[in-house]
Amino acid sequence: MHGTVKIVLGLAALGAAGAVFFKRAEQSSFLPGPTSDGHHQIEKKCDACHTPFGGVAQAACLACHADGMESEQDSHSPGKFEDPRNALALGRIDAGHCVECHREHRPTQTDRMSVSARAGFCVECHRDVGKDRVSHQGLAFTTCNDSGCHNFHDNRSVYTEFLAKHRGEPDLLRSPAVPSRAAQQAAVLTASAPAAAFEPNPTLDEGAAKSAPPIAADVPPGIDEESVGRQAIAAATSAWQSSAHARQGINCSGCHRAAGDDSGAWNWRPEQTVACAGCHSDEKRTFLGGKHGMRLAVGLPPMRPADARLPMKDEVARDAHESGLTCSRCHDAHAPDLRVAAVERCEGCHNDGHTRAYRQSAHFTAWQAEVAGTKPPGSGVSCATCHLPRAIDRFGVTPRVWADHNQNGNLRPVDKMARSVCMSCHGLQFSLNALADRAVVAGNFAAAPSPVRTGFDFLPRSAK
């Protein structure tokens, strides 16, 4: 017995020592293979996904992706796979678990959508579609996802009822515009009451004139000024006085003093994800779920553009490469300008062909007109318009419009962007065809889509 106890205690000690070593070691050295583009940023945090001796838990996937799955209104819900009538198909592919289709560290088996399931796996449940639907006859099941038609997690863009509803729409709608942050513009989106019932609030419009009189900063006099510098405090105060924060009555103490702290303690450099989240909780939540903030969500240092797999501008974004991406990297803490954050901040780091082509597109021309005030709010298309789309909360008297900072919400598959962004300005046919034309996407939509390049047309004009 004593020998057995010694062996057990020895193994426990060895396991504990190994756990400590694993925690402190460079965990990427333990990788069995390259990580996918979607997860490579957190590859140094193995326990974000893996459980000791238990593989990847389903709960680990949902910890990051549950919000996205819910917003996509997943047509392949877990309940569907718990139905005994689907037992035969599930014997061939267990679609109720994420890792069945998304396996990491297998680059030769993983496509650009981070799907590692064998091509054509849709046939296991939808064999009848290829036979019964005239529009699908002759198509191989390997084209279900590759062609851009179907998204396993959200097929709403190609539901029959949805296609019929938007059939015949023009390429460009009569009043193209995305939801504006101006209250009056948001109110137009509410069918329950006319827009005239709401008073416009210029403080919500990023292009509104800064006409409100400045309010006094509430920085306590003499509080540790030497460590920061009087000139720096004066410059920050001056910038803040003309900002949207000041116009909303948010004073210095709103960020530099902890909520509920009566001790008078002053923090010159507050934690941004805490201070900003006091008013921007939705933005923080979605930021942590997206590519820019996912490292922070698992306890790693902020993402640096230098670590990205996409081309980045080393010479322009050198400071960002060193300090990492937090709220203030795109939004000046004292003088936030949403227009600068929507274009210039993105271009300051990204150096891929899609980004470089933006200023030659009709979208940029429309954006310039909106910024200049010659076109109404929401009519321009910035980088953020498509990649940080506006979300609308219709609770209360006035709908609230905020920016979804999780790029995964409509980045891949690209057809997800059709409903959330493109169809604010374009018809469904044009939107889906443009998103499926990779040459058009690469050129930042400077040209019209071509069915010759996509190989199909979602709603052929001859059938209208």
Keywords:
single chain; 464 residues; mainly alpha; two-stranded antiparallel sheet; 27 helices; 4 strands
Strand and helix map with partners:
Elements: H1 2-24, E1 50-51, E2 55-56, H2 58-71, H3 78-81, H4 87-90, H5 123-126, H6 129-132, H7 143-146, H8 160-165, H9 183-188, H10 225-228, H11 230-241, H12 244-247, H13 253-256, H14 272-275, H15 281-289, H16 294-297, H17 318-323, H18 327-330, H19 338-342, H20 344-347, H21 353-356, H22 362-372, H23 383-387, E3 390-393, E4 400-403, H24 416-420, H25 428-436, H26 438-442, H27 451-454
Antiparallel strand pairs: 1-2, 3-4
Rg, rounded, reads 26 Å
Largest sheet: 2 strands, antiparallel
N→C terminal distance: 83 Å
Order of strands across the biggest sheet? 1-2
Q: Average pLDDT, to the nearest integer?
A: 78
Strand content: under 5%
What's the quaternary structure here? single chain
- Low-pLDDT residue intervals, each spanning 5 or more residues: 183-210, 456-464
- Shape, principal axes of CA atoms: globular
Structural category: mainly alpha
Residue share in helix: 25-40%
Number of strands: 4
Helix segment count? 27
Q: What does it look like?
A:
This protein has 27 helices and 4 strands. It has 464 residues and is mainly α. A hairpin with a 3-residue loop joins strand 1 and strand 2. It starts with a helix and ends in a 10-residue tail after the last helix.
